[in-house]
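Holo model, tetrahydrodeoxyuridine. Inputs:
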Amino acid sequence: MDRDMTEPTDANPDDDMALTLLRSARESALSAYAPYSRFRVGAVVLADDGTTFSGVNVENAAYGSTICAEASAIAAAAAAGIRSIPTVAIGGLDAAECYPCGNCRQLMREFGVEHVLVQDGLGGVREHTLDDLLPHSFGPESLG
Ligand code: THU
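Output:
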């Protein structure tokens, strides 16, 4: 756990919270291991109990073994027993915008992510619902 945001939340992150999460994601990106793409990404997940977990992209000489920032943040949360993640913030240091890849959208779907916060390239936050980013999706309940 990175820190306790104290207020359990499953509601819309307010503007301050959204900015804080995005800044924290960008700060994490400083630790990205991205010697091949030089595209540094950080992600912070906000769990339903108010705790946060960060992740960075971790590349590999076997390129296909690369782990995205969102995947490593979700894995850190899952390892701590978290099963519900309302909000994910994603910050990149090497591009104005950094949207999650298709695979990470699916990983978010598993843990009930609703709000996806990305940088708008102007120092602000753009908020999307996961449903917008991954419409007609397949999830745990789809298995019946
Ligand atoms: N990457 C992420 O970590 N998250 C994203 O949302 C997009 C892409 C990483 C994977 C790879 O290390 C680098 O960015 C370039 O694709």
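Confidence is low (pLDDT under 50) at residues 3-10. Helices lie at 15-28, 69-79, 102-110, 130-133.
Archived with the compound record.
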